[in-house]
Design goal:
Layout lengths: L2 E4 L3 E5 L3 E6 L4 E2 L3 H12 L5 E6 L5 E2 L3 H5 L5 E7 L3 H11 L6 E4 L2 H12 L2
Parallel strand pairs: 3-5, 4-6, 5-7, 7-8
Antiparallel strand pairs: 1-2, 2-3
Amino acid sequence: MRASLTLNFCDMSIYDNYLVVVMHEGINVLPEHNEILIEVANEYFKNQAFVYITHRINSYSVDPQIYFETAKIENLKGFAVVSNDYKAKSNAEVEKMFFNKPFGIFSELNEAVDWANELVNQ
């Protein structure tokens, strides 16, 4: 792990090819949260491809419009959702329609990590 960040709405673990984000319980993820993602991308992944992995341990909501802005991050190669919860996976299927880059849905974090590494190394 390269870095670990604790923010008022999430915890981020930053690795070489990806970052893993765990949103806090009850958060409503809004487009303005993208500003922080852009800052992290610029600081830790400048001129380097990476994948965003959201590990959905807690219950929270996402404004699907957020994906239009997230997809504009040039070096973001993909987005992964990790959850064992049926509802979270169903929501991710809807969210996927708003994102024009590779979008994976996984049950286990290690599956998402493998996918992220493959995507970045293509």
